[in-house]
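Chapter summary example.
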Amino acid sequence: MTVVYIKDLVVMGRHGIHDWEKKNPQRFRFNLELTVDTAPAAVSDKLADTVDYAELRRIIVESTENDSYNLLERLAQVIVDRVLDDKRVRKLALAIDKPDTFESGTPGVKVEITT
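The structure predicted for these 115 residues follows.
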């Protein structure tokens, strides 16, 4: 098994419980790790045999920019559900940070799933 990941992806979005969070885009930082069997890709050298980083990035960006949720937990679940459509994923860890929320300290959520 191999860990495929995207680290420190920053996307603007409108998520939160406050009106100002819905009106003014803010930064969200994503770290996604997937455990995947990449043995077929290691032999074939074909993208179709592994998880595509670009597709993972597209899922995160679309989910963050195109929708608005009160809670990070909901945003995380939407992303997780879309990523897990790929049945090759055996384990997933997704962390979402809101780096602009406080002057000091970064709140966020982390979801970990084993399929």
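To summarize the output: The two ends are 14 Å apart (CA to CA).
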